[in-house]
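Researcher: I'd like a candidate sequence for this fold, 190 residues long. If you have to choose between options at a position, lean toward the conservative one.
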């Protein structure tokens, strides 16, 4: 079983690349955003709990986010592996993921970070915002705020996974095909 954590700042191309990687390696793609949307839309017990925090303007606690992800992983007992997109985002989530995977006799195989300059990513997101209509991609201040949050909470994962010799950085600038080739080169050498 191969379990890949794909991370990078908003606009780095995680979702686009996840589509290619899940097909090539026959992985189950689990996107934190999709899991949240599913739980909220379907008013699941976990979705109801998350909504309380969100309605109050608070971040959903790591423990609740982890419960949602574990619930989603458990829906795919016969998978070849999981491609985690947007999770973990904090050290405590990474530790919880490691602990959970250990209970099912598995582990994170590798983490791959799509890296790109903030200015390029801001331009990408502003362009995506014009096409997608996503409000959070139409305001440069909000985009930069998301990057600040990423730097504070998610960037420390680099050290966490480097200490386990599971961290791989990939240049996230170039054509979709070029980036896919860089990612597959890393995965093929695991």
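Model: Candidate sequence:
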């Amino acid at each position: 079983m191969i379990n890949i954590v794909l991370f990078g700042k908003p606009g780095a191309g995680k979702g686009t690349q996840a589509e290619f990687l899940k097909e090539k390696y026959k992985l189950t793609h689990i996107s934190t955003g999709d899991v949240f949307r599913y739980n909220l839309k379907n008013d699941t017990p976990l979705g109801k709990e998350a909504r309380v925090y969100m309605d109050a303007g608070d971040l959903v606690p790591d423990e609740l986010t982890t419960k949602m992800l574990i619930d989603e992983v458990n829906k795919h007992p016969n998978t070849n592996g999981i491609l985690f997109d947007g999770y973990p985002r904090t050290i405590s989530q990474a530790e919880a993921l490691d602990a959970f995977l250990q209970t099912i006799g598995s582990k994170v195989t590798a983490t791959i970070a799509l890296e790109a300059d903030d200015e390029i990513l801001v331009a990408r997101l502003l362009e995506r915002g014009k096409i997608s209509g996503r409000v959070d991609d139409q305001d440069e201040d909000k985009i930069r705020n998301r990057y600040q949050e990423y730097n504070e909470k998610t960037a420390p994962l680099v050290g966490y996974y480097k200490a386990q010799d599971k961290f791989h950085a990939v240049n996230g600038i170039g054509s979709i095909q070029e980036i896919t080739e860089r990612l597959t080169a890393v995965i093929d050498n695991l």
